[in-house]
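Example 3.2
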Amino acid sequence: MNIYNLKNIQNVMDNSVKNNFVSGCNCLIFKNNKELGYFESGFLDIENKIPFKRNTICRLFSMTKPVTAVATMILVEKGIIDLWQNVSDFIPEFNILKICINDKIQKSQRPILIKDLLNMTSGFSYGSDLNVAEKELSIFINEFLNENVVTKNDFTTLDFAKKVAQIPVSFEPGTDYQYGISADILAAVVEVASGMKYSDFLKKNIFEPLGMNDTDFYVPKEKQNRLAKIYEISERKLKLFTKCNLGIQNKMELIPSFESGGAGLNSTVDDYMKFCLMLVNKGLFDGKRILQEKTVEFLSNSKLSDNLQKCFDKKMEHLQGYTYCNLNRVCIDKGKTSIFTENGEFGWDGWLGPYMSVDLKNDLTIVYLQQITNSGTTSTMRKIKNIIYSSL
C-alpha cells in the first residue's frame, strides 16, 4: 500500500472546500482492521466558522438504507422473514395492490415481495409527474410528510407504509427497477416482524453491540453543536438550506414518529465506520456478531436478473459496472465503472453526499461525510476513491 499517495486526499478535500463544492467534509479509511488515514476540511457551520471535525454529526439520508438491509437480514437469519414472502403478510394493506398504467388504475397481477423492497423493484419511486399515481406519491412525500415533521409529528413508520399501500405502483412488481421509498416500507416490515419500534430494533441489534453511540433518528440537545448544517449550491456559492426533505427534519432536534428506513439516520464518520468494519469482517466487530459470514457474502455477491439489470443500467447510467441488490450498489464488472474499485465492493451514498464502501477482497472500508443538497456520489468522492484504490 502506497500510504504516501493518500496525502492527495487532503488536497482534493481542501480544493472542494475552496471552490464551494462542499462546506466541510471528512473521510476515514480502514484496511485490515487498521486505520490508514483520516482527513477533514472546511466547516460544519460556515457562518460561525465552526470546523468540520471527526465527531461532527451528519444526516445520512440514503446511507440509512444499508442499515435497513442489515436489519432485514438479521430477521432473515432468524427465519422470521423470507425474501420471497409477500409484504402483505406483514402489512395487510398491501394485499390489494393497484397499478397505474397510462393514468388508468387496475389491480396488479403480482404482489410486492420482500426482495422487491430490497432491490428497488417494488414499483414505488420517490414521486414524479409521470402519471396520476406518481403525482399523488410526490405530494404525499414532498408536502404531507415534510409538513407533518414541523407540525404534529404524529405520523409513524407503519402509518407511512399503510398510506403508501393505497397509492398505485407504476409497474408490476419485479418487472422493472426504480429507486424510491422501498426501504421506508421495509422499516415498517421490520417493526411488524420483530414486534419492536424500528429505532429500538436497530439499537438492540446493531447500534448498541457496535458501540454506535452517535447514531440515531434525532440529535439530542447536548449534541446539537456537533450537527453539521446543510448547504445548497446556488450560483457557485453555498447557501444555507433550512427546509425538511423526505419527511426528515432539518435540525434533527425532535424524536420523530416517522423513522425513515430509507433516509432517517444521522451518524459520525467513526460510528458509521464501525458498521462498515462489521461488514468487512463478515458480520463480526469487536467480538460482537451482528450477521453470519454467509449473509455478508450474500450482500457482496447478489445481482439483479439480466432483464432487471438492463433496466438498472438504463436508469442509473452513472453506475455502469454495478448492480443494485439489498439496498446497496454492488460492483459486478470493475472494468465498466467510472471509478476505481473491486468486484464485489458494495455500499451506497446519500442525498447530501455521504458515501460508504465495503470491499471484502481487499479488506478495505471507506466512509466519507458531507452535507450538500442533491449530491449523491460526488466528484470529490470519486477522486478520493481513485486515490485510495490506485494506492493499493
